[in-house]
Amino acid sequence: MNFRKLALVATALAGGGLLVATEAARAQAQNTLTIVREVDSDRYDPHRSTARAATEALFMLADTLVSLDHDMTSIKPGIAESWSVSADGKVYTFKLRQDVQFCDGKKMTADDVVYSLKRWINPETRSPVRWRAGPVEDIVAKDPYTVEYRLTAPFSELLYQLTQSFAVVIDKANVEALGADFGVRGFNGTGPYCWVDWRPRNDMRMRRHDAYRWGPPIYENRGPAHIQEIVWRIVPEENTRLAAVLTGQSQATQYVPYSGLAQIRANRNLRVVENPAAFWTYFIGFKVDKAGVDDPAVRRAIVMAVDQEAISRDLNFGETEPAYSYIHQSATDWDKRLDSQLIRTNVAEANRILDAAGWVRGPDGFRAKNGVRLSPIVYTFTGSTWSKLTEAVQGDLRKIGVDLRIQLFDATVAWGKLATQEFDLFGMSFPYITAGDALNLYFRSTNVPTPNRMNWRNADTDRLLQAGMTAVNEADRAAAYGQVLQQVHEAAVWIPLYHEPMKIAVSNRLAPFRAHNNYGSGFYKGLDLRFVR
After folding, report:
1. Cis (ω within 30 of 0) for the bond into 224?
2. What's the CATH number where 396 sits?
3. Is the residue at 190 inside a domain?
4. CA–CA dist 120, 139 (Å, integer)
């Protein structure tokens, strides 16, 4: 059955009794799992892509020194079976497993780990997430199975950052052979799955790594994986994704349209797997030095005009939490003093602010000042999620005389466009666990033009972020990050939209498993995924 035709049958399948099982049965017989998702990545180079789509695949294609447990706080072994930290917090020593090998059969050693981590931090790589590696002095192989990670200052979040896909081990020979096509035409990793092929905007295929035996202890199955082949298929239209799950064309997706979750819960052949320890936030950011939105009063009025509650209630069918903060208020190091200071929806006050700032409504209802129309342009991704979100925000802003223009790009193009200076606002969503994780990603001056797409350059912010990163106790870290949170919220740098919990729709043909949320990748390494026999 063609994916483009699936939406035609979705309504007929709502009760679950008429589920078309032929495709699912065939997939089970072939031991192939098809996962549908909304957008693709621009590439699968761990050091050059920050897309969730890249991370979803990289966690399965490769391994990290340490792993993150399902509770999103506990650090467990990965390809490092143990580690120690010096008294001053500046030297981490990792003892590696000796049975790890790449998909091509080559044995992995400390030299591979060192190469991978040094490529990540090499300025020539131009990694947008280089900061996540911390203030590195050097990374050295002490012997074939010992890696010493030396810092110039303590970095309280190093182990967490080393669980991220940016820190996976890659093969130097593979990188050099493929050159610019590394992560585009191939990838040789040590993960539970091996690269087969990638057709951008269509699908990615990976096959089980039969030699794999070194999975993290958070899984019942340490390897090899139960599933023989995984197909990640791109389905931008939300109703077609829903129909794909209802008909068995796909056996799993975390990209479920909110409108369909009740339908899935009511279907006896499907279920929803959730992880409550999830932090993923949707927002629209301002480029704070662009004319019009360079005025904090204008930004504050725009934020105040957006109705987050209506977005969660009406667009998202009550499945998300309205966001007024830039990170979830349950995240580590959130400053609770900010709770009473967050900008709330108030259209009348937003209009008053713009009137006072000299932005006058014209005959068409839109505002202008000194002959310049208040008509900012927002760049974001194609797909139903951002199309609906930006249209909702556009409607809210018309209530205060702001003419928001929308430009959507396919994900393979969008990441490049979002690194330019062409736009006034941008739509984005992001994962995090702590305040420091989120703030260091977006608000460091050195991260301009991406991921600091706001052009937020503030010496005091940089000083506080550095103090938070190098703090040796929780109180000092929380105090530093709390001040940054105060700064950026007062400056109205973002329009927070909603916080999204992890919810995965799966076929009951899959055995029970636990949803993960490391970088929003619900399947993480996928080692416990299996069809019920």
Report:
1. yes
2. 3.10.105.10
3. no
4. 12
Instruction: Judge whether residue 69 has pLDDT over 80.
Output: yes
Reduce the DSSP state of residue 486 to 3 states and report it. helix
Sign for the CA dihedral angle at 441, 444, 446, 452 comes to positive
Is 322 strand, coil or helix? strand
Torsion sign over Cα 21, 26, 29, 35: negative
Tell me the pLDDT tens digit for each residue of 421-480. Answer: 999 999 999 998 889 999 998 999 999 998 899 999 999 999 999 999 998 888 999 999
Nearest to 495 by CA among 272, 325, 289: 325
Name the DSSP class of 99.
S
96 found inside a domain:
no
Number of structural domains, the chain? 1
Residue 472: give the domain boundaries: 280-499
Token pair 């078309």 is at which residue?
Answer: 20
Residue 484 CB contacts under 8 Å (≥ 6 apart), including other chains: 435, 439, 443, 461, 464, 465, 468
What is the share, in percent, of the chain residues with pLDDT greater than 70? 94
Instruction: Give the C-alpha separation, 4 to 449, whole Å.
Output: 37
Per-residue CA distances from 210 to 65, 168, 217 (Å): 21, 19, 18
Considering only CA atoms, which of 499, 504, 515, 84 is closest in space to residue 272? 504
**Cα→Cα distances 190→207, 216, 240, 529, Å:** 12, 13, 34, 18
- Asked if residue 325 belongs to a domain, the reply is yes
CB 499 within 8 A of CB 328: yes
Whether 458 is in a domain gets the answer yes
The 10 Å Cβ neighbour count of residue 446 is 10
Buried b vs exposed e over 338-349: b needs ≥16 C-beta within 10 Å?
A: beeeebebeeeb
How many other C-beta atoms are found inside a 10 Å radius of the C-beta of residue 248? Answer: 24
The one-character DSSP state at 107 is B
Mean pLDDT of 317-322: 93
Statement: residue 18 has pLDDT above 70 = no
User: Three-class SS of residue 334?
Assistant: coil
Q: What are phi and psi of 230, to 5 degrees?
A: -120, 130
First to last CA, the chain: 24
DSSP state string for 417-483: HTTSS--SEEEEEEE-SBHHHHHHHHH-GGGTTTT-TT----HHHHHHHHHHHH-SSHHHHHHHHHH
SS3 of 147, please? strand
Count other Cβ atoms within 10 Å, centred on residue 124: 6
For the whole model, what pTM was predicted? 0.81
User: How large is the angle between the packed helices 474-490 and 435-443, nearest 10 degrees?
Assistant: 50
At 23, list the tokens: 């495709």
From 280, 333, 342, select the one nearest 484 (Cα to Cα): 333
pLDDT, one tens digit per residue, over 142-166 is 999 999 999 999 998 899 899 999 9
> What CA–CA distances, in Å, run from 116 to 3, 23, 121, 131, 175?
38, 40, 9, 15, 10
